[in-house]
Specification:
globular
Length: 316
């Protein structure tokens, strides 16, 4: 697959860009090849693209320059292949409220453009909707896996987040690209069991599995190399409220893999991931500055009485 194919998918399928629409592509120097591919794809559908290149966007979530924020307001569609995310900037939030369709693509590389960005996002969205309809009223999630993962979590009254399908065609729609993930906050003090992380932690590939013991939602014991020591020190000396399991999700993108990159790890088809720490931003009660993502491979996931994933394969 080529970068051009991924760009065409982003422009025409994911964002539904139409002839005559004003497209703004915000980039910085490390992402200029991706930005140029999106520019060309926008021209191909008859849109009117403008490419704005900044100096490196170094700090996650800092504010965009004022003149760039104003340019977003006069656009129909915005793509942001930048080094770091613009998702929580005021400029993005205000533009979304004004009806601009926006795709944030933080840290995207040619590897993502030729891989998960070429997925069938119509099919991913359909699968997310289908699974959601069956599990939205279920109260319990059970996850088991190789190495000893066995944990139960309550989601009674919590809502699944299903918008991360990659389709953002409605006025004011916002998505990350590439996409393919459904997730939910869990009841903060009702998770109990063992999680053996054998994929990635905070988008770092693990050489040694990390074993986490969870009691009443809180991680009470850590085993497994330097990552265990890192977590123990961070939670015992720092932000203790972030030592709780905050959420759970399932990857839905068949073109993604576990590669130690945030745009692939949590969306890889058949993976299960746990959010450690902050979940207030997606419907939970834990506020804080820390949220880590722990990905496990070949899990078996049961929601209510329905088995959704068995040993890393979707069976529902």
């Amino acid at each position: 697959m080529s970068m051009e194919e991924g760009a065409k998918n982003a422009v025409a399928v994911c964002m539904g860009t139409r002839r005559g629409e004003r497209v703004l592509i915000i980039s910085d120097k490390p992402r200029n090849k991706v930005a140029r591919a999106l520019f060309n794809a926008s021209e191909e559908v008859g849109a009117e693209p403008v490419l704005a290149e900044m100096s490196s966007f170094r700090q996650n979530e800092r504010e965009l320059p004022l003149h760039l924020a104003k340019a977003m307001m006069y656009s129909d569609v915005v793509f942001a292949p930048t080094e770091n995310s613009i998702s929580h900037t005021r400029a993005r939030i205000v533009a979304s409220k004004a009806g601009v369709r926006i795709a944030s693509m933080p840290g995207i590389r040619s590897r993502e453009m030729t891989g998960p960005m070429t997925a069938d996002f119509e099919e991913i969205a359909a699968n997310i909707r289908r699974i959601y309809e069956e599990v939205r009223r279920k109260k319990k999630i059970t996850v088991t896996g190789k190495g000893g993962t066995e944990i139960s979590m309550s989601v009674d009254g919590r809502m699944w987040v299903t918008e991360d399908s990659g389709l953002a065609r409605e006025k004011g729609a916002f998505t990350n690209l590439p996409a393919g993930n459904m997730f939910t906050p869990v009841i903060e003090k009702n998770s109990n069991g063992i999680i053996v992380v054998d994929g990635t932690l905070d988008n770092k590939t693990l050489r040694t599995p990390l074993k986490l013991e969870v009691k009443k939602g809180k991680i009470v014991n850590y085993e497994g190399g330097k990552e265990a020591e890192y977590l123990k020190e961070m939670f015992e000396k720092g932000e203790k409220r972030s030592s709780y399991i905050g959420g759970f999700g399932m990857g839905m993108n068949p073109k993604a893999g576990i590669v130690g990159h945030p745009l692939q790890d949590e969306i890889a088809l058949g993976t299960a991931h746990f959010y450690i720490g902050e979940n207030f931003s997606f419907g939970g009660r834990i506020r804080g500055s820390i949220r880590m993502n722990a990905v496990i491979r070949k899990a078996t996931v049961k929601i209510g009485e329905i088995t959704i994933i068995e040993k890393g394969e979707f069976v529902f």
